[in-house]
Amino acid sequence: MHSAANPIMPIPGLIDPVPVPRAVTPREDGRVDMLGLTRAQMKGALEEAGLDQKAAKLRSKQLFHWLYHRGETDFEKMTDLAKPMRLWMAERFIVGRPQVVEAQVSNDGTRKWLLRSDDGQDYEMVFIPDADRGTLCVSSQVGCTLNCSFCHTGTMRLVRNLTPGEIVGQVMLARDALGEWPKGSMASVNDDEADDEAQYTADGRMLTNIVMMGMGEPLYNFDHVRDALKLVMDGDGLALSKRRITLSTSGVVPMMARAAEEIGVNLAVSLHAVTKEVRDELVPLNRKYGIEELLQACADYPKANNARRITFEYVMIKDKNDSDADAHELVRLIRKYKLPAKVNLIPFNPWPGTDYECSSQERIRAFSTIVFEGGISAPVRTPRGRDIMAACGQLKSASEKKSKAEMKRLAEEKQAALG
Ligand code: SF4
């Protein structure tokens, strides 16, 4: 399946893995892809290609606006650049997008895209429309090294970090697909011309929120995730408020303070269990950073307050983590650390080869009630996109499907490694 130049890379270790960095794949035509570059990087690329500093500064400002605010991919359409400049750029650069291998629509309106990078790696993104919002679930890695036992993505073997261009590219592609780039002239970047501001506001957009909850652990790809989200939040870029972005981690404790400092978006934590024994099984990273340590890091997360609560994700698995005692313990822990918190209860979404089952509706309701009575909001998430395997924990690209026998072998290997 994979050529010798691109061998399958083993995932090193169970709980402290090192994701494989991306080998840059040079384009055959020698042009450079601008997608994912910051203003400064664009300026650097233009200077390297031969523009003087002043010209590079001006052009990079214009390009930034065209790329990230307008979604333009064709230099020919960048009308405030002189024609020879457009040609000059098109000879040296491109503005790429992830390649779409497959686009599926669920019967509940959820959409899933299977994307391919230019070195042939597959990853997925999911769009979940609701009455009052539209959420794009973005991937940060191809596969995931953390092997959460309830999660399909964790069974993928090949893992590499996505680049900033591949991460922000998902958001841009979703805007392409939803037809949500603002129309209008370029006057706002060309200082003294007046423009009709209204043309730039796109009220009623479908894509309103982003969650870094697709494939991968975003805090294991910190720099690229941060750089991509900066482009998403930039007022002259995609201009999405940080209040509308949520980063979800399984609990990479040492990176959480940096995430607050350097990214500053909302935090979601995949808790899924309240005892060491069960969380060790469901989220093996727990062996490294335990529950108490994780909750302390949440309490220290400086962005958390009553207006911006930390979301705890809790997957409901039958006879595993769904008892009344678990619910009471969850309340006790959240209170102990005085966390401004909300708990999202996620009915387990089955996938081929898993031994887990979803808790019954009554059990989920009883669990939710106990947490609510403890003074903590605990809504039950409606599963979305299950029919196209787009729901939480179901993502896994088609090229990585494994046979049941292989899954069993992997489980045994894992068991042996845990000794
Ligand atoms: S739940 Fe998240 S961190 Fe765990 S294996 Fe799945 S993708 Fe990775």
From TrEMBL:
<dbReference type="GO" id="GO:0046872">
    <property type="term" value="F:metal ion binding"/>
</dbReference>
<dbReference type="GO" id="GO:0070475">
    <property type="term" value="P:rRNA base methylation"/>
</dbReference>
<feature type="binding site">
    <location>
        <begin position="270"/>
        <end position="272"/>
    </location>
    <ligand>
        <name>S-adenosyl-L-methionine</name>
    </ligand>
</feature>
<dbReference type="InterPro" id="IPR004383">
    <property type="entry name" value="rRNA_lsu_MTrfase_RlmN/Cfr"/>
</dbReference>
<dbReference type="InterPro" id="IPR040072">
    <property type="entry name" value="Methyltransferase_A"/>
</dbReference>
<protein>
    <recommendedName>
        <fullName>Dual-specificity RNA methyltransferase RlmN</fullName>
        <ecNumber>2.1.1.192</ecNumber>
    </recommendedName>
</protein>
<dbReference type="InterPro" id="IPR058240">
    <property type="entry name" value="rSAM_sf"/>
</dbReference>
<keyword id="KW-0808">Transferase</keyword>
<comment type="function">
    <text>Specifically methylates position 2 of adenine 2503 in 23S rRNA and position 2 of adenine 37 in tRNAs. m2A2503 modification seems to play a crucial role in the proofreading step occurring at the peptidyl transferase center and thus would serve to optimize ribosomal fidelity.</text>
</comment>
<feature type="binding site">
    <location>
        <position position="248"/>
    </location>
    <ligand>
        <name>S-adenosyl-L-methionine</name>
    </ligand>
</feature>
<dbReference type="InterPro" id="IPR007197">
    <property type="entry name" value="rSAM"/>
</dbReference>
<comment type="similarity">
    <text>Belongs to the radical SAM superfamily. RlmN family.</text>
</comment>
<feature type="binding site">
    <location>
        <position position="148"/>
    </location>
    <ligand>
        <name>[4Fe-4S] cluster</name>
    </ligand>
</feature>
<dbReference type="InterPro" id="IPR027492">
    <property type="entry name" value="RNA_MTrfase_RlmN"/>
</dbReference>
<feature type="domain" description="Radical SAM core">
    <location>
        <begin position="130"/>
        <end position="387"/>
    </location>
</feature>
<dbReference type="InterPro" id="IPR013785">
    <property type="entry name" value="Aldolase_TIM"/>
</dbReference>
<keyword id="KW-0949">S-adenosyl-L-methionine</keyword>
<dbReference type="GO" id="GO:0070040">
    <property type="term" value="F:rRNA (adenine(2503)-C2-)-methyltransferase activity"/>
</dbReference>
<keyword id="KW-0819">tRNA processing</keyword>
<feature type="region of interest" description="Disordered">
    <location>
        <begin position="400"/>
        <end position="419"/>
    </location>
</feature>
<keyword id="KW-0479">Metal-binding</keyword>
<dbReference type="GO" id="GO:0002935">
    <property type="term" value="F:tRNA (adenine(37)-C2)-methyltransferase activity"/>
</dbReference>
<dbReference type="InterPro" id="IPR048641">
    <property type="entry name" value="RlmN_N"/>
</dbReference>
<dbReference type="GO" id="GO:0005737">
    <property type="term" value="C:cytoplasm"/>
</dbReference>
<keyword id="KW-0004">4Fe-4S</keyword>
<keyword id="KW-0408">Iron</keyword>
<dbReference type="GO" id="GO:0030488">
    <property type="term" value="P:tRNA methylation"/>
</dbReference>
<dbReference type="GO" id="GO:0051539">
    <property type="term" value="F:4 iron, 4 sulfur cluster binding"/>
</dbReference>
<dbReference type="GO" id="GO:0019843">
    <property type="term" value="F:rRNA binding"/>
</dbReference>
<keyword id="KW-0489">Methyltransferase</keyword>
<keyword id="KW-0963">Cytoplasm</keyword>
<feature type="binding site">
    <location>
        <position position="144"/>
    </location>
    <ligand>
        <name>[4Fe-4S] cluster</name>
    </ligand>
</feature>
<keyword id="KW-0411">Iron-sulfur</keyword>
<dbReference type="Pfam" id="PF04055">
    <property type="entry name" value="Radical_SAM"/>
</dbReference>
<feature type="binding site">
    <location>
        <position position="151"/>
    </location>
    <ligand>
        <name>[4Fe-4S] cluster</name>
    </ligand>
</feature>
<keyword id="KW-1015">Disulfide bond</keyword>
<keyword id="KW-0698">rRNA processing</keyword>
<feature type="active site" description="Proton acceptor">
    <location>
        <position position="124"/>
    </location>
</feature>
<dbReference type="GO" id="GO:0000049">
    <property type="term" value="F:tRNA binding"/>
</dbReference>
<feature type="binding site">
    <location>
        <begin position="216"/>
        <end position="217"/>
    </location>
    <ligand>
        <name>S-adenosyl-L-methionine</name>
    </ligand>
</feature>
<feature type="active site" description="S-methylcysteine intermediate">
    <location>
        <position position="392"/>
    </location>
</feature>
<feature type="binding site">
    <location>
        <position position="349"/>
    </location>
    <ligand>
        <name>S-adenosyl-L-methionine</name>
    </ligand>
</feature>
